[in-house]
Design goal:
By secondary structure, the protein is mostly helical. The protein has a domain of 118 residues: Arc Repressor Mutant, subunit A (Orthogonal Bundle), CATH 1.10.10.10. It is built from 8 helices and 2 strands. Helix 2 packs across helix 5, helix 3 packs across helix 4 and helix 7 packs across helix 8. It starts with 11 loop residues before the first helix and ends with a helix.
Length: 181
């Protein structure tokens, strides 16, 4: 397993640069390991990683709308809708009109969808969640705080870039349509 250690301070500028590179490298390594495990787990269950994410969200919060799921997955509603449609076609979720808003549908797991989620949770391949459970509560809280700040900063920069380059949004939507998140 790859270890990330901090360099000694030779100068403030070089330390800052090295620590930024090391943090970025650690985050990329974490993303790669997590993505690989999620792809393997989803493939073993017969769904895409994006579909498994939606199934897991519906397990935690039944009766979500497409917009709720889009917000949870940090994607656009037009990207989530085809995924939910595919899940409904395979009998993993059901859709019914919302009692509170006739313009929205509530999406729920079917018994078959619940079995997929249960199988996913019983199996191995959740290295990130397993590792997070091993952290002390205070460390987890600090990690959440730091990652929230980082996500907000990256999201802000990405939104600014997307505003200047609408082509980036088209590329992201195309990737979503092909089953990726």
């Amino acid at each position: 397993m790859r270890q990330f250690s901090f360099v000694t301070k030779s100068s403030p500028a070089s330390y800052r640069s090295a620590s930024i590179d090391m943090a970025a490298s650690a985050l990329r390594a974490l993303a790669q390991v997590t993505r690989s495990a999620e792809q393997r787990r989803a493939r073993d269950l017969g769904v895409s990683p994006a579909q498994l994410l939606i199934l897991g969200s519906l397990s935690a919060r039944p009766g979500q709308s497409i917009n709720d799921l889009a917000q949870f997955t940090h994607t656009h509603q037009t990207s989530v809708s085809p995924l939910v449609h595919a899940l409904a076609e395979t009998g993993l979720v059901s859709r019914r009109q919302s009692a509170s808003d006739v313009r929205e549908a509530e999406v729920r797991l079917t018994p078959k969808g619940r079995r997929i989620v249960e199988r996913a949770r019983r199996g191995t391949g959740w290295p990130l969640k397993d590792s997070l459970q091993q952290l002390k509560a205070d460390d987890r809280s600090e990690l959440i705080r730091i990652l929230s700040v980082l996500v907000a900063a990256v999201t802000s920069k990405e939104a600014a870039t997307r505003g200047a380059n609408p082509q980036g949004e088209k590329v992201r939507r195309r990737a979503m349509a092909q089953g990726g998140l």
